Amino acid sequence: MGILTEPLQYIRDVKLPKGCFAVAELGDQWVTCGGKHQLARKFYEELGCSRYESIDGNGRGTCTQDLNIPIEKWGMFWRCEFDLVTDFGTGEHVFDQHQVWRTMHMLTKVGGYIVFDRPCAGYEGHCFYLIQPNLIAAVAWANCYEVVAFERAETTRGHLVRGVLRKTNNQRFMVPQQGRYHKDLKPILSSDLKIRGPDHKSKALRDAGVIRRGVGDVVSCEDSEEDIESLHANHWMRG
Question: What is the DSSP secondary-structure string of the chain?
Fold first, then answer.
């Protein structure tokens, strides 16, 4: 797997402890941009990483594990130990997406960062899953992550969504429900999600660009009539 230019810059930009931060990556990663082709471990060590782990099923990482399996069954205690946890093109190849996100959550320290770069369109035959931005919104909302960065990108093979999430508390991993169906799903929502409300009404998620108004988006009750008219006009102009 290769780490592209933009995710590398995300890592340079986040506020990691100087000279003593710990990194866990899903997949044995390589830096493959800017003419370089080197093990990601070397890149992190140049930034001051004091501990590096890469988790993969191919035997080439520092830890050989099946990411479909809950972290409790790995035979090691790695909970909340890492300042930076990454998924640069590994998670989409794992069948159990719940375990992928739960594992990243459980590896990350409070105040630590989850950085991801995942396909969302194209990439035919490449992976099991293409994720939607609203999945990122739902995971972030349910688990009180701060969205530090988020963007969509186009490659020769398709489209990607990438970004940075910051873990803000030590709550257990919360399985999200799709926000636009919040009212219909109230019988099965956890009390936390019932109290927080639907993710699509989050100004922070909208400001970060994770949720965009468009087909299927629900206009919040706080929006003015002018905003609603503008939304419809922009939709039809886009065709």
Answer: -EE-HHHHHHHHHS-PPTT-EEEEEES--EE-STT--EEHHHHHHHHTEEEEEEEESSS-SSEE--TTS-GGGSSS--TT-EEEEEEESSGGG-S-HHHHHHHHHHHEEEEEEEEEEEEEEE-TTT-S----HHHHHHHHHHTT-EEEEEEEEE-SSEEEEEEEEE--S-PPPPPP--GGGTTTTGGGS-HHHHHH--GGG-HHHHHTTSS--STTPPPPTTS-HHHHHHHHHHHHHH-
